[in-house]
Amino acid sequence: MKEQLEAIRVEALERIAEVEDIKTLQDIRITYLGKKGSLTSVLKGMGKLSKEERPVVGEIANKVRDAITTSLEAKIEVLENAALEKQLEAESIDVTLPGRPVKVGGPHLLTSIVEEIEDLFIGMGYEIKEGPEVETDYFNFEALNLPKNHPARDMQDTFYITNELLLRTHTSPVQARTMREYKGIKPFKMICPGKVYRRDNDDATHSHQFTQIEGLYVDKNVRMSDLKGTLDTFAKKMFGEDRSIRLRPSFFPFTEPSVEMDISCKVCNGEGCSVCKGTGWIEILGGGMVHPNVLEMAGYDPQVYSGFAFGMGPERIAMLKYGVNDIRTFYTNDVRFLKQYHQA
Ligand code: 2NL
């Protein structure tokens, strides 16, 4: 039996030494140490030995088992290390290779312009307000001093959904809602950017959907000179400190008096050129003092409060600032157009 055990030891260690893969190593463990393994079956025959021989053979058997186990574990470590080395080798990367370019998107030109205008007015203490694009007849017209059958309603051809519901034709209803929210007592400054809709045939200067930004300041003692100063600051920040503005009388149903603002043409500096059509001035926006009827309908006492309001088209601003000559390019989204205006 001692010879048998010794033979197992020699054979097992030899095979372990030769083995090249972990799977075969597991098989070897089972062959010798498993439940039906050769060492195990030798040990099972120990019952037949004499009392004196048993502990001697038992000790040898334990040593053989320990030797095989130790050898197996050492070999497993060797093989595992080798496998890891091989994997690291296979997965190595060349960090000196140039990277693949990643395509980065950016804001749409109109988004950039709207955000620039927002930042500018936030800097002057204005809050940004938004409202629904599907509006009621009341907030879109009635509350803005445009009662039913008012001739000025014909000026804006409207997309009606029902008799009372429509796609807003301007962002003014957001302002009417804000005045109501502030219950005729709170002074405030706000601007409201957003999409508006008009029934129109699209061409280079008209679109049935476009964006508008309106501003409103309501407080005690708000005056025309406040409007002029605010718009002057806006024009200079937006188009350059060397621009000047002028106000011309105009008409809007929701303001009285109403004005239109021009900036001096930056192409000819007021001399007159094709961009300003020889006048030296370019029309930018409209505004005025909030009509007392509008204040009153919103709950502000026109004897105590006054306000100014203005409205502009970001498309027009962007077209003037960047020399875009067709409003439709904002919506057809040709990437060759859009790409030119990514400020990374
Ligand atoms: C333009 C002119 C304007 C307003 C908008 C307004 C709003 C309220 C009260 C009074 Cl709630 N006015 N908005 C006033 C004057 C002109 O827009 O040319 N927009 C593109």
TrEMBL record:
InterPro entries: aa-tRNA-synth_II, aa-tRNA-synth_II/BPL/LPL, Phe-tRNA-synth_IIc_asu, Phe-tRNA_ligase_II_N, Phe_tRNA_ligase_alpha1_bac, Phenylalanyl-tRNA_Synthase, tRNA-bd_arm. SUPFAM superfamilies: Class II aaRS and biotin synthetases, tRNA-binding arm. It comes from the Bacteria. It catalyses: tRNA(Phe) + L-phenylalanine + ATP = L-phenylalanyl-tRNA(Phe) + AMP + diphosphate + H(+). The keyword Phosphoprotein does not apply. It holds the Pfam family tRNA-synt_2d. Transmembrane segments: none annotated. Binds 2 magnesium ions per tetramer. GO terms for cellular component: cytoplasm. It is found in: Cytoplasm. GO terms for molecular function: ATP binding; catalytic activity, acting on a protein; magnesium ion binding; phenylalanine-tRNA ligase activity; transferase activity; tRNA binding. Its EC number is 6.1.1.20. Its main location: cytoplasm. Mg(2+) binds at residue 256. It is an enzyme of class 6 (ligase). GO terms for biological process: phenylalanyl-tRNA aminoacylation. Keywords: Aminoacyl-tRNA synthetase, ATP-binding, Cytoplasm, Ligase, Magnesium, Metal-binding, Nucleotide-binding, Protein biosynthesis. Coiled coil: none annotated. Its cofactor is Mg(2+). Belongs to the class-II aminoacyl-tRNA synthetase family. Phe-tRNA synthetase alpha subunit type 1 subfamily. This is Phenylalanine--tRNA ligase alpha subunit.
